[in-house]
Design brief:
This protein has five helices and three strands, in the order ααβααββα. It has a three-stranded antiparallel β-sheet. By secondary structure, it is an alpha+beta fold.
C-alpha cells in the first residue's frame, strides 16, 4: 500500500508545471531527449536534468543512454493513466 508521504511526493512531482509539461509530451509513447523535454517545459537543460532525475528516482520515468544523449519515457502505462485521470478532472 502506498504511504501518505509517497503519495504526496508523487503528487508534488506531477504538480510542478515544468514536470507536467514533460510528462504530457511523453504521453505520446515515444522516448524524448532531455533537451527536447527542456524545450517543451521552457526550462534550461540544467533545470530539466534535475526534474528528470527526480522523476526517474520516483519511478515515473525510465532513462536510457544512447551516445551523448539520454532518452526518457514513461516508466509504465500507469503513469499515463494517472495523467489522463488528472486531465479529466
Amino acid at each position: 500500500m502506498t504511504t501518505v508521504n509517497a503519495l504526496s511526493e508523487i503528487a508534488a512531482l506531477i504538480g510542478d508545471p515544468a514536470r507536467t509539461a514533460m510528462l504530457q509530451l511523453l504521453m505520446d509513447g515515444r522516448a524524448h531527449t532531455a533537451s527536447d523535454l527542456a524545450h517543451t517545459a521552457g526550462v534550461t537543460a540544467q533545470t530539466a536534468s534535475g526534474h528528470l532525475s527526480r522523476m526517474v528516482e520516483a519511478n515515473l520515468l525510465t532513462a536510457r543512454a544512447e551516445g551523448r544523449n539520454r532518452f526518457y519515457r514513461l516508466a509504465s502505462p500507469d503513469v499515463a493513466q494517472v495523467m489522463e485521470s488528472l486531465m479529466a478532472l
